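Researcher: We plan to redesign the surface later, but first we want a full-length starting point. Tokens attached.
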């Protein structure tokens, strides 16, 4: 036999049918999760372009290949966007037909009772008494009236027949399922709209510094595709002080764990000055902009003098904590481009609570400032600031520089406690004046936050309805006093048998006629 050719439109219909199946939607969801892995393993250009450039320089052809396939722009890459869009299309294709089917099912009457109710997972049979009715037929109708009233009270939709009552409930389960999927789609679209019309930026603020919300004040700035950076809301933010506490009483892994981070800030907007406390997960909002506390650390105050004794560099220098060190051991760089004769650079490690370990090495045993100590190496030469190539302020390229040495020709190690000064070879000195604290803040404006909140609430509400409301059908049939109660659940429902028992208990006559015993029930 020769099968007919599908043709172009037939292939399109087949592809659409496959795309809108639950199996393909789950596969796309899994593929999307796998595709997001490189974004967490490799540096991303939108977050840290400096690290991306360093990776490319250190990995040569391999780095170039990864850049070609957009591994450093994973979340905006063509292949990630394709998977994302296919998943959204699949979700829409699933929602629309299921919504139509659910609407028809809700408007239709519950199905009549099958011929053999005894095959149902929940089943009971018993004999009903005649009661005050004149005939058996009248008694049966009275029984069905009572069954109908009882089922309506329990929230069932009723379809009354001559000899039985068909009831159904649990349509909110499917409604919740649809609400969950629609809200999920709504949340995804809301995120996309927010990324188009909002912005996000980062800034490090040392105690005493003031941030003015302008483009040049950001350390990094990521506007949405349709956001006009010239229309940034006008406000200023000053870091008055920052305090943190760490647990020094706990034992084991809990020793040194952070307990609180509190930043005292002053905001000024439209001539109005206010004081706030900025905490983790408690942002400060100014003119529709959210300011979030995302990090903190120490900024040693260092003064560098040249051979003539002139101050060529002075002030706090931001040192970045090592994420794997609970003692807040921090690394930083000091660049001195204005010294007379030659430029200088220092690479250092800051220890908030300096101690020696078993090997005699300097380490920080605690995150608070209990014994601050600064250790640095010095370099002289060309810092490369005039080459036109962007540099990270937290790293020093010493390829064109010469390491400073002491009188014996060994590399110079500068070790300073707070208030100490060390002379440099060839003249000049370095002084460790003190320590200030700094915070890292994330500043963002998202016009869709209210809509995102609504979407999240609907997601949780829909998920709750789909998980905790059972879908169930119940039939109550009676003929000549012989009653049957049966229930059928859609999916797993361990309460089917109990629902039948409770219904039987309510429907049986309190005074069984003609010697009928309450235990005479067939299940």
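Model: Full-length starting sequence:
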């Amino acid at each position: 036999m020769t099968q007919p050719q599908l043709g172009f439109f037939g292939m399109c219909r087949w592809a659409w049918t496959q795309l809108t199946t639950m199996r393909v939607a789950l596969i796309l969801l899994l593929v999307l999760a796998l595709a997001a892995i490189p974004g967490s393993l490799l540096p991303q250009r939108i977050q840290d372009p400096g690290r991306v450039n360093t990776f490319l320089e250190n990995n040569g052809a391999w780095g170039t290949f990864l850049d070609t396939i957009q591994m450093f722009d994973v979340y905006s890459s063509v292949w990630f966007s394709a998977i994302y869009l296919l998943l959204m299309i699949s979700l829409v294709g699933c929602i629309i037909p299921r919504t139509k089917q659910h609407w028809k099912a809700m408007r239709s009457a519950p199905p009549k009772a099958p011929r053999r109710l005894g095959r149902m997972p929940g089943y009971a049979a018993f004999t009903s008494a005649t009661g005050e009715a004149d005939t058996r037929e009248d008694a049966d109708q009275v029984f069905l009236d009572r069954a109908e009233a009882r089922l309506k009270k329990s929230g069932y939709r009723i379809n009354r027949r001559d000899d039985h009552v068909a009831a159904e409930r649990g349509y909110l389960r499917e409604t919740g399922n649809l609400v969950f999927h629609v809200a999920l789609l709504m949340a995804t679209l809301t995120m996309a709209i927010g990324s188009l019309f909002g912005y996000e930026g980062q800034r490090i603020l040392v105690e005493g510094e003031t941030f003015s919300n302008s483009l040049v004040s950001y350390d990094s700035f990521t506007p949405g595709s349709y956001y006009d950076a010239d229309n940034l809301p006008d406000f200023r933010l000053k870091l008055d002080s920052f305090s943190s506490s760490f647990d020094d009483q706990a034992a084991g892994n809990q020793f040194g764990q952070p307990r609180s981070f509190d930043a005292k800030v002053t905001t000024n907007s439209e001539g109005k000055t206010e004081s706030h406390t900025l905490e983790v997960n408690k942002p400060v909002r100014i003119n529709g902009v959210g300011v979030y506390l995302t990090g903190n650390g120490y900024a040693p105050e260092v003064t560098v003098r040249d051979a003539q004794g002139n101050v060529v560099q002075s002030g706090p220098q931001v040192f970045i904590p090592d994420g794997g060190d609970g003692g807040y051991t921090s690394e930083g760089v000091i660049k001195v481009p204005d010294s007379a004769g030659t430029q200088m650079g220092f690479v250092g490690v800051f220890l908030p609570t300096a101690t020696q370990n078993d090997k005699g090495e300097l380490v920080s045993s605690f995150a608070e400032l209990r014994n601050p100590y600064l250790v640095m190496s010095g370099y002289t030469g060309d810092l490369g600031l005039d080459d036109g190539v962007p540099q990270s302020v937290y790293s020093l390229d010493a390829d064109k520089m010469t390491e400073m040495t002491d009188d014996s020709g060994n590399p110079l190690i500068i070790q300073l406690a707070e208030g100490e000064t060390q002379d440099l070879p060839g003249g000049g000195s370095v002084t460790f004046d003190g320590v200030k604290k700094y915070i890292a803040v994330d500043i963002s404006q998202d016009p869709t936050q209210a809509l995102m909140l609504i979407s999240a609430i609907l997601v949780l509400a829909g998920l709750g309805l789909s998980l905790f409301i059972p879908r169930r059908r119940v039939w109550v049939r009676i003929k000549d006093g012989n009653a049957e109660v049966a229930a059928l659940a859609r999916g797993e429902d361990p309460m089917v048998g109990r629902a039948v028992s409770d219904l039987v208990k309510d429907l049986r006559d309190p005074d069984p006629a003609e010697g009928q015993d309450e235990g005479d029930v067939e299940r």
